[in-house]
Protein backbone atom coordinates (compact mmCIF):
# COMPACT_ATOMS: atom_id res chain seq x y z
CA UNK A 1 0.00 0.00 0.00
CA UNK A 2 1.30 3.47 -0.94
CA UNK A 3 1.38 5.48 2.30
CA UNK A 4 1.90 9.21 2.77
CA UNK A 5 5.51 8.59 3.83
CA UNK A 6 6.22 7.01 0.45
CA UNK A 7 4.73 9.86 -1.58
CA UNK A 8 7.87 12.01 -1.27
CA UNK A 9 10.18 9.41 -2.81
CA UNK A 10 7.55 8.69 -5.45
CA UNK A 11 7.36 12.37 -6.49
CA UNK A 12 11.16 12.58 -6.60
CA UNK A 13 11.38 9.31 -8.53
CA UNK A 14 8.72 9.96 -11.16
CA UNK A 15 9.97 13.10 -12.93
CA UNK A 16 13.48 11.69 -13.14
CA UNK A 17 12.22 8.91 -15.36
CA UNK A 18 10.17 11.22 -17.58
CA UNK A 19 11.88 14.61 -17.74
CA UNK A 20 11.70 15.05 -21.48
CA UNK A 21 11.48 11.75 -23.31
CA UNK A 22 7.69 11.66 -23.33
CA UNK A 23 7.75 13.99 -26.33
CA UNK A 24 9.52 11.24 -28.26
CA UNK A 25 6.99 8.49 -27.50
CA UNK A 26 4.68 9.28 -30.47
CA UNK A 27 7.73 9.05 -32.73
CA UNK A 28 8.59 5.69 -31.13
CA UNK A 29 5.03 4.54 -31.87
CA UNK A 30 5.53 5.56 -35.49
CA UNK A 31 8.81 3.65 -35.71
CA UNK A 32 7.53 0.42 -34.15
CA UNK A 33 3.95 0.70 -35.37
CA UNK A 34 1.17 2.07 -33.20
CA UNK A 35 -0.18 -1.22 -31.88
CA UNK A 36 3.14 -2.95 -31.42
CA UNK A 37 4.66 0.25 -30.06
CA UNK A 38 2.06 0.34 -27.31
CA UNK A 39 2.85 -3.28 -26.44
CA UNK A 40 6.56 -2.48 -26.42
CA UNK A 41 6.02 0.48 -24.10
CA UNK A 42 4.25 -1.74 -21.57
CA UNK A 43 6.98 -4.38 -21.90
CA UNK A 44 9.78 -1.84 -21.40
CA UNK A 45 7.99 -0.44 -18.34
CA UNK A 46 7.64 -3.94 -16.87
CA UNK A 47 11.30 -4.80 -17.46
CA UNK A 48 12.38 -1.43 -16.04
CA UNK A 49 10.32 -2.08 -12.93
CA UNK A 50 11.96 -5.46 -12.42
CA UNK A 51 15.48 -4.15 -13.04
CA UNK A 52 15.01 -1.48 -10.37
CA UNK A 53 14.00 -4.16 -7.90
CA UNK A 54 17.07 -6.20 -8.89
CA UNK A 55 19.33 -3.24 -8.08
CA UNK A 56 18.16 -3.04 -4.48
CA UNK A 57 18.37 -6.82 -4.15
CA UNK A 58 21.97 -6.58 -5.33
CA UNK A 59 22.54 -3.87 -2.75
CA UNK A 60 21.30 -6.11 0.04
CA UNK A 61 23.37 -9.04 -1.23
CA UNK A 62 26.57 -7.01 -1.37
CA UNK A 63 25.94 -4.66 1.54
CA UNK A 64 26.80 -1.78 -0.81
CA UNK A 65 23.97 0.68 -1.40
CA UNK A 66 25.19 2.56 -4.43
CA UNK A 67 25.36 1.73 -8.12
CA UNK A 68 29.14 2.01 -8.01
CA UNK A 69 29.20 -0.18 -4.93
CA UNK A 70 27.27 -3.10 -6.39
CA UNK A 71 29.27 -2.94 -9.63
CA UNK A 72 32.55 -2.99 -7.71
CA UNK A 73 31.32 -5.79 -5.45
CA UNK A 74 30.27 -7.87 -8.44
CA UNK A 75 32.99 -7.14 -10.99
CA UNK A 76 35.75 -5.29 -9.17
CA UNK A 77 37.63 -2.36 -10.66
CA UNK A 78 36.71 -3.16 -14.31
CA UNK A 79 33.02 -3.06 -13.40
CA UNK A 80 33.47 0.20 -11.56
CA UNK A 81 35.29 1.70 -14.56
CA UNK A 82 32.65 0.52 -17.05
CA UNK A 83 29.91 2.07 -14.95
CA UNK A 84 31.87 5.32 -14.83
CA UNK A 85 32.06 5.45 -18.62
CA UNK A 86 28.33 4.82 -19.03
CA UNK A 87 27.44 7.27 -16.28
CA UNK A 88 29.46 9.88 -18.13
CA UNK A 89 27.89 9.32 -21.53
CA UNK A 90 24.29 9.12 -20.31
CA UNK A 91 24.07 12.68 -18.89
CA UNK A 92 26.47 13.97 -21.56
CA UNK A 93 24.25 12.84 -24.44
CA UNK A 94 21.22 14.00 -22.45
CA UNK A 95 22.72 17.51 -22.37
CA UNK A 96 23.10 17.36 -26.14
CA UNK A 97 19.43 16.45 -26.44
CA UNK A 98 18.50 19.33 -24.12
CA UNK A 99 20.24 21.78 -26.44
CA UNK A 100 18.41 20.25 -29.40
CA UNK A 101 15.08 20.68 -27.61
CA UNK A 102 15.75 24.30 -26.63
CA UNK A 103 16.85 25.11 -30.18
CA UNK A 104 13.79 23.44 -31.67
CA UNK A 105 11.20 24.87 -29.32
CA UNK A 106 12.36 28.40 -28.63
CA UNK A 107 12.79 29.32 -32.30
CA UNK A 108 9.03 29.09 -32.74
CA UNK A 109 8.40 31.14 -29.63
CA UNK A 110 10.85 33.88 -30.65
CA UNK A 111 9.33 34.12 -34.13
CA UNK A 112 5.82 34.29 -32.68
CA UNK A 113 6.57 36.86 -29.97
CA UNK A 114 8.76 39.18 -32.02
CA UNK A 115 7.23 38.59 -35.45
CA UNK A 116 10.72 38.49 -36.95
CA UNK A 117 11.43 36.61 -40.14
CA UNK A 118 12.37 32.95 -39.59
CA UNK A 119 15.54 33.67 -41.57
CA UNK A 120 16.60 36.38 -39.11
CA UNK A 121 19.82 35.54 -37.28
CA UNK A 122 18.05 35.73 -33.91
CA UNK A 123 15.58 33.09 -35.07
CA UNK A 124 18.36 30.61 -35.81
CA UNK A 125 18.63 27.68 -33.41
CA UNK A 126 22.41 28.05 -33.23
CA UNK A 127 22.10 31.61 -31.94
CA UNK A 128 19.21 30.89 -29.58
CA UNK A 129 21.00 27.95 -27.96
CA UNK A 130 24.20 30.01 -27.73
CA UNK A 131 22.38 32.84 -25.95
CA UNK A 132 20.68 30.40 -23.56
CA UNK A 133 24.04 28.75 -22.94
CA UNK A 134 25.90 31.98 -22.17
CA UNK A 135 23.27 33.63 -19.99
CA UNK A 136 21.57 30.65 -18.31
CA UNK A 137 23.42 27.37 -18.67
CA UNK A 138 26.97 28.54 -17.96
CA UNK A 139 26.19 30.54 -14.78
CA UNK A 140 24.12 27.68 -13.33
CA UNK A 141 26.62 24.98 -14.26
CA UNK A 142 29.53 26.83 -12.68
CA UNK A 143 28.02 26.34 -9.23
CA UNK A 144 29.78 23.58 -7.35
CA UNK A 145 26.62 22.57 -5.49
CA UNK A 146 23.44 22.24 -7.53
CA UNK A 147 21.38 20.76 -4.69
CA UNK A 148 18.81 23.55 -4.96
CA UNK A 149 18.29 22.82 -8.65
CA UNK A 150 17.60 19.20 -7.81
CA UNK A 151 14.42 20.31 -6.04
CA UNK A 152 12.50 20.84 -9.26
CA UNK A 153 10.44 17.66 -9.08
CA UNK A 154 7.16 19.43 -8.38
CA UNK A 155 7.82 22.01 -11.10
CA UNK A 156 8.52 19.16 -13.52
CA UNK A 157 5.18 17.58 -12.66
CA UNK A 158 3.38 20.87 -13.26
CA UNK A 159 5.08 21.30 -16.64
CA UNK A 160 4.30 17.74 -17.70
CA UNK A 161 0.66 18.11 -16.66
CA UNK A 162 0.22 21.41 -18.53
CA UNK A 163 1.87 20.12 -21.71
CA UNK A 164 -0.22 16.94 -21.62
CA UNK A 165 -3.44 18.92 -21.21
CA UNK A 166 -2.41 21.17 -24.10
CA UNK A 167 -1.74 18.17 -26.33
CA UNK A 168 -5.10 16.64 -25.44
CA UNK A 169 -6.88 19.91 -26.19
CA UNK A 170 -5.26 20.11 -29.62
CA UNK A 171 -6.29 16.62 -30.79
CA UNK A 172 -9.67 17.70 -32.11
CA UNK A 173 -8.39 20.95 -33.63
CA UNK A 174 -5.49 19.49 -35.58
CA UNK A 175 -7.14 16.21 -36.53
CA UNK A 176 -9.25 18.17 -38.98
CA UNK A 177 -6.28 19.60 -40.89
CA UNK A 178 -3.50 16.99 -40.60
CA UNK A 179 -3.50 15.13 -43.94
CA UNK A 180 -3.88 11.39 -44.26
CA UNK A 181 -0.75 9.30 -44.69
CA UNK A 182 -0.57 5.74 -46.08
CA UNK A 183 1.68 4.64 -43.20
CA UNK A 184 -0.60 5.91 -40.45
CA UNK A 185 -2.05 3.48 -37.91
CA UNK A 186 0.16 0.59 -38.96
CA UNK A 187 0.14 -2.04 -36.24
CA UNK A 188 3.75 -3.05 -36.89
CA UNK A 189 6.79 -1.29 -38.34
CA UNK A 190 10.34 -2.58 -38.59
CA UNK A 191 12.19 0.03 -36.49
CA UNK A 192 11.61 -1.79 -33.21
CA UNK A 193 15.08 -1.44 -31.71
CA UNK A 194 15.30 2.36 -32.09
CA UNK A 195 11.82 2.61 -30.57
CA UNK A 196 12.94 0.57 -27.56
CA UNK A 197 15.92 2.91 -27.18
CA UNK A 198 13.63 5.93 -26.94
CA UNK A 199 11.34 4.15 -24.49
CA UNK A 200 14.26 3.01 -22.34
CA UNK A 201 15.49 6.59 -22.15
CA UNK A 202 12.01 7.66 -21.07
CA UNK A 203 11.99 5.25 -18.12
CA UNK A 204 15.65 5.66 -17.19
CA UNK A 205 16.04 6.49 -13.50
CA UNK A 206 18.55 3.92 -12.29
CA UNK A 207 21.36 6.36 -11.53
CA UNK A 208 19.24 7.80 -8.68
CA UNK A 209 17.91 4.47 -7.42
CA UNK A 210 19.91 4.24 -4.21
CA UNK A 211 19.51 7.95 -3.49
CA UNK A 212 15.73 7.53 -3.58
CA UNK A 213 15.94 4.29 -1.60
CA UNK A 214 17.88 6.01 1.17
CA UNK A 215 15.19 8.71 1.40
CA UNK A 216 12.51 6.16 2.33
CA UNK A 217 11.78 6.02 6.05
CA UNK A 218 12.74 2.59 7.41
CA UNK A 219 13.62 1.47 3.91
CA UNK A 220 13.05 -2.16 3.02
CA UNK A 221 12.80 -4.27 -0.10
CA UNK A 222 9.02 -4.37 0.21
CA UNK A 223 8.69 -0.59 0.52
CA UNK A 224 11.03 -0.14 -2.40
CA UNK A 225 8.94 -2.42 -4.56
CA UNK A 226 5.84 -0.40 -3.66
CA UNK A 227 7.49 2.88 -4.64
CA UNK A 228 8.90 1.35 -7.82
CA UNK A 229 5.60 -0.15 -8.94
CA UNK A 230 3.75 3.11 -8.30
CA UNK A 231 6.36 5.26 -10.01
CA UNK A 232 6.79 3.12 -13.11
CA UNK A 233 3.03 2.62 -13.44
CA UNK A 234 2.48 6.38 -13.22
CA UNK A 235 5.22 6.96 -15.78
CA UNK A 236 3.68 4.32 -18.04
CA UNK A 237 0.24 5.92 -17.86
CA UNK A 238 1.61 9.38 -18.64
CA UNK A 239 3.81 8.03 -21.44
CA UNK A 240 0.81 6.20 -22.92
CA UNK A 241 -1.25 9.38 -22.78
CA UNK A 242 1.46 11.39 -24.52
CA UNK A 243 2.07 8.64 -27.04
CA UNK A 244 -1.56 7.98 -27.89
CA UNK A 245 -2.56 11.66 -27.92
CA UNK A 246 0.47 12.72 -29.96
CA UNK A 247 0.22 9.89 -32.45
CA UNK A 248 -3.55 10.26 -32.77
CA UNK A 249 -3.01 13.88 -33.74
CA UNK A 250 -0.11 13.57 -36.18
CA UNK A 251 0.12 9.85 -36.93
CA UNK A 252 2.93 9.14 -39.44
CA UNK A 253 3.98 12.80 -39.36
CA UNK A 254 5.04 12.52 -35.70
CA UNK A 255 8.48 14.02 -35.14
CA UNK A 256 11.15 13.00 -32.64
CA UNK A 257 10.28 16.22 -30.82
CA UNK A 258 6.49 16.19 -30.71
CA UNK A 259 6.35 19.95 -30.14
CA UNK A 260 7.88 20.36 -33.61
CA UNK A 261 4.57 19.21 -35.07
CA UNK A 262 2.59 22.14 -33.72
CA UNK A 263 2.12 25.35 -35.64
CA UNK A 264 4.35 28.32 -34.96
CA UNK A 265 1.38 30.62 -34.28
CA UNK A 266 -0.24 28.30 -31.72
CA UNK A 267 0.01 30.36 -28.52
CA UNK A 268 -1.07 27.52 -26.24
CA UNK A 269 1.65 25.25 -27.57
CA UNK A 270 4.15 28.11 -27.57
CA UNK A 271 3.54 28.53 -23.85
CA UNK A 272 4.06 24.78 -23.50
CA UNK A 273 7.33 25.20 -25.38
CA UNK A 274 8.43 27.92 -22.96
CA UNK A 275 7.61 25.78 -19.92
CA UNK A 276 9.38 22.81 -21.42
CA UNK A 277 12.46 24.86 -22.28
CA UNK A 278 12.64 26.28 -18.74
CA UNK A 279 12.42 22.77 -17.33
CA UNK A 280 15.18 21.62 -19.67
CA UNK A 281 17.43 24.57 -18.84
CA UNK A 282 17.06 23.83 -15.12
CA UNK A 283 17.79 20.15 -15.67
CA UNK A 284 20.91 20.72 -17.78
CA UNK A 285 23.11 21.89 -14.84
CA UNK A 286 22.18 18.77 -12.85
CA UNK A 287 23.35 16.53 -15.69
CA UNK A 288 26.47 18.68 -16.07
CA UNK A 289 27.18 18.20 -12.37
CA UNK A 290 26.99 14.41 -12.78
CA UNK A 291 29.26 14.46 -15.83
CA UNK A 292 31.77 16.70 -14.07
CA UNK A 293 31.76 14.46 -11.00
CA UNK A 294 32.60 11.42 -13.14
CA UNK A 295 35.57 13.26 -14.66
CA UNK A 296 36.79 14.49 -11.28
CA UNK A 297 36.47 11.12 -9.56
CA UNK A 298 37.64 8.87 -12.40
CA UNK A 299 40.30 10.89 -14.21
CA UNK A 300 41.67 13.51 -11.84
CA UNK A 301 43.78 12.24 -8.97
CA UNK A 302 43.35 14.08 -5.69
CA UNK A 303 45.50 13.77 -2.60
CA UNK A 304 42.43 13.59 -0.41
CA UNK A 305 39.10 12.08 -1.58
CA UNK A 306 37.08 14.96 -0.13
CA UNK A 307 39.48 17.66 -1.30
CA UNK A 308 37.75 20.00 -3.78
CA UNK A 309 39.48 20.69 -7.06
CA UNK A 310 40.82 24.16 -7.76
CA UNK A 311 38.58 26.87 -9.16
CA UNK A 312 40.59 26.95 -12.39
CA UNK A 313 40.19 23.22 -13.04
CA UNK A 314 36.53 23.40 -12.03
CA UNK A 315 35.86 26.15 -14.57
CA UNK A 316 37.93 24.42 -17.26
CA UNK A 317 36.08 21.11 -16.93
CA UNK A 318 32.65 22.74 -16.77
CA UNK A 319 33.20 25.01 -19.75
CA UNK A 320 34.72 22.16 -21.77
CA UNK A 321 31.63 20.04 -21.17
CA UNK A 322 29.26 22.87 -22.07
CA UNK A 323 31.15 23.86 -25.23
CA UNK A 324 31.43 20.26 -26.41
CA UNK A 325 27.75 19.51 -25.92
CA UNK A 326 26.85 22.75 -27.69
CA UNK A 327 29.01 21.95 -30.71
CA UNK A 328 27.68 18.40 -30.97
CA UNK A 329 24.07 19.57 -30.66
CA UNK A 330 24.60 21.91 -33.60
CA UNK A 331 25.40 18.97 -35.89
CA UNK A 332 21.82 17.68 -35.82
CA UNK A 333 18.33 18.91 -35.02
CA UNK A 334 16.87 15.40 -34.94
CA UNK A 335 15.87 14.78 -31.34
CA UNK A 336 14.69 11.27 -32.18
CA UNK A 337 18.18 10.25 -33.29
CA UNK A 338 19.75 11.67 -30.12
CA UNK A 339 17.21 9.87 -27.92
CA UNK A 340 17.86 6.62 -29.78
CA UNK A 341 21.62 7.06 -29.40
CA UNK A 342 21.42 7.70 -25.67
CA UNK A 343 18.92 4.91 -25.28
CA UNK A 344 20.97 2.16 -26.90
CA UNK A 345 24.44 3.35 -25.85
CA UNK A 346 23.79 4.28 -22.23
CA UNK A 347 20.21 3.91 -20.98
CA UNK A 348 19.77 0.26 -22.00
CA UNK A 349 23.07 -0.94 -20.46
CA UNK A 350 22.53 1.14 -17.31
CA UNK A 351 18.88 0.16 -16.91
CA UNK A 352 18.87 -3.50 -17.91
CA UNK A 353 22.24 -5.10 -18.56
CA UNK A 354 24.30 -4.02 -15.55
CA UNK A 355 21.63 -4.38 -12.81
CA UNK A 356 20.78 -7.88 -14.04
CA UNK A 357 24.44 -8.91 -14.31
CA UNK A 358 25.15 -7.61 -10.81
CA UNK A 359 22.33 -9.68 -9.36
CA UNK A 360 23.37 -12.77 -11.33
CA UNK A 361 26.92 -12.41 -10.04
CA UNK A 362 26.09 -11.65 -6.40
CA UNK A 363 23.26 -14.14 -5.90
CA UNK A 364 24.40 -17.62 -4.93
CA UNK A 365 24.14 -20.42 -7.46
CA UNK A 366 24.63 -20.72 -11.20
CA UNK A 367 23.05 -18.27 -13.61
CA UNK A 368 20.75 -20.98 -14.96
CA UNK A 369 18.96 -21.58 -11.67
CA UNK A 370 15.23 -20.95 -11.69
CA UNK A 371 15.41 -17.96 -9.35
CA UNK A 372 17.78 -16.25 -11.78
CA UNK A 373 15.85 -16.93 -14.97
CA UNK A 374 14.06 -13.57 -15.05
CA UNK A 375 17.27 -11.64 -14.35
CA UNK A 376 19.05 -13.56 -17.10
CA UNK A 377 16.23 -12.66 -19.47
CA UNK A 378 16.60 -8.96 -18.60
CA UNK A 379 20.35 -9.11 -19.26
CA UNK A 380 19.90 -10.85 -22.61
CA UNK A 381 17.15 -8.39 -23.60
CA UNK A 382 19.39 -5.44 -22.80
CA UNK A 383 22.42 -6.85 -24.62
CA UNK A 384 20.43 -7.63 -27.77
CA UNK A 385 18.82 -4.18 -27.84
CA UNK A 386 22.13 -2.39 -27.18
CA UNK A 387 24.11 -4.27 -29.84
CA UNK A 388 21.43 -4.18 -32.53
CA UNK A 389 20.61 -0.58 -31.66
CA UNK A 390 24.16 0.58 -32.31
CA UNK A 391 24.31 -1.39 -35.56
CA UNK A 392 21.01 -0.03 -36.88
CA UNK A 393 21.79 3.50 -35.78
CA UNK A 394 25.03 3.61 -37.74
CA UNK A 395 23.37 1.94 -40.72
CA UNK A 396 20.83 4.78 -40.77
CA UNK A 397 23.29 7.64 -40.28
CA UNK A 398 22.22 9.10 -43.63
CA UNK A 399 18.88 9.97 -42.01
CA UNK A 400 20.40 11.99 -39.16
CA UNK A 401 19.42 15.36 -40.61
CA UNK A 402 16.08 14.36 -42.11
CA UNK A 403 13.99 16.29 -39.60
CA UNK A 404 11.38 19.01 -39.86
CA UNK A 405 13.24 21.77 -38.00
CA UNK A 406 13.16 25.02 -39.93
CA UNK A 407 10.05 23.91 -41.78
CA UNK A 408 6.45 24.88 -41.33
CA UNK A 409 4.09 21.94 -41.48
CA UNK A 410 1.77 22.11 -44.47
CA UNK A 411 -1.34 21.81 -42.37
CA UNK A 412 -0.29 24.95 -40.50
CA UNK A 413 -0.43 26.86 -43.78
CA UNK A 414 -3.70 25.36 -44.96
CA UNK A 415 -5.77 28.46 -44.27
CA UNK A 416 -3.21 30.62 -46.03
CA UNK A 417 -2.86 28.70 -49.28
CA UNK A 418 -5.95 26.53 -49.28
CA UNK A 419 -4.02 23.31 -49.97
CA UNK A 420 -2.29 20.65 -47.98
CA UNK A 421 0.93 19.06 -49.19
CA UNK A 422 1.32 15.33 -49.47
CA UNK A 423 4.47 15.24 -47.40
CA UNK A 424 3.09 17.23 -44.49
CA UNK A 425 5.75 19.94 -44.53
CA UNK A 426 6.93 22.90 -46.51
CA UNK A 427 10.57 23.90 -46.35
CA UNK A 428 10.99 27.58 -45.60
CA UNK A 429 14.76 27.52 -45.91
TrEMBL record:
One of its GO terms (biological process) is amino acid transport. Residues 23-394 form the Amino acid transporter transmembrane domain. It is found in: Membrane. It comes from the Eukaryota. InterPro entries: AA_transpt_TM. It is a multi-pass membrane protein. Keywords: Amino-acid transport, Membrane, Transmembrane, Transmembrane helix, Transport. The chain crosses the membrane at residues 34-56, 77-101, 121-142, 154-172, 192-214, 226-250, 312-329, 341-362, 374-395. One of its GO terms (cellular component) is membrane. Belongs to the amino acid/polyamine transporter 2 family. Putative sodium-dependent amino acid/proton antiporter. PANTHER family: AMINO ACID TRANSPORTER (PTHR22950), SODIUM-COUPLED NEUTRAL AMINO ACID TRANSPORTER 11-RELATED (PTHR22950:SF458). This is Putative sodium-coupled neutral amino acid transporter 11.
Amino acid sequence: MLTTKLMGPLIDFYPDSNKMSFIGIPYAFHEAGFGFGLILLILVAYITDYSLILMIKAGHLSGRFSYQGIMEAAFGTPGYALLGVLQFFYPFIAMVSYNVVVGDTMTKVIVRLTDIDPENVFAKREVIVLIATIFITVPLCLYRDVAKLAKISFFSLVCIAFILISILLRIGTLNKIVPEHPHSWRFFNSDIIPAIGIMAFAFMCHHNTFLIYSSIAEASQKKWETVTHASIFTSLVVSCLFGIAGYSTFKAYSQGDLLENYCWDDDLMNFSRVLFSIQILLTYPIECFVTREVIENSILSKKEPDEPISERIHYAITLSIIVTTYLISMTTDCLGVVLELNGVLAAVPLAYVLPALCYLKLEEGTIFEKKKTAALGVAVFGLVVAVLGVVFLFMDMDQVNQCSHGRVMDYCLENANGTTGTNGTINRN
